[in-house]
Amino acid sequence: MYILTDDNNDKLYIGVTSNLIKRIYEHKNKQVSSYTKRNNIHKLVYYQEFGDIYLAISREKQLKGRLRSRKIKLIEINNPNWNDLYDEITE
């Protein structure tokens, strides 16, 4: 489960995948036809790994139902500078 944002940290996108590195690469290279491509959302600011896809989907739905302020708080607790975490996951 992951959260992406744009360069200005204005827009948020929450997604789920079984291959985080591949999926973020696709977002960064605009290989997906979606909201993220149209809005230049490519910066990985939060991710959470699960051993079970159903738990990941449940968490994704939970976060999508939260207020934006709570999503921002989650990001800022774990990534206060809103750094792009892509390099962290590819090391």
Can you offer a commentary on this structure?
This protein is an alpha+beta fold and 91 residues long. The protein has a single domain, classed as GIY-YIG endonuclease. It is 45% helix and 14% strand. It is built from five helices and three strands, in the order E-E-H-H-E-H-H-H. It has helices at 20-28, 35-38, 53-64, 68-78, 86-90, and strands spanning 2-5, 12-15, 43-47. The chain has a three-stranded antiparallel sheet with strand order 2-1-3, with helices on both faces. The radius of gyration is 12 Å and the shape is globular.
Strand content: 5-15%
Strand order of the largest sheet: 2-1-3
Order of helices and strands: EEHHEHHH
Portion in helices: 40-55%
Largest sheet report:
3 strands, antiparallel
CATH topology: GIY-YIG endonuclease
The outline comes out as globular
Low-confidence stretches: none
Counting structural domains, the number is 1
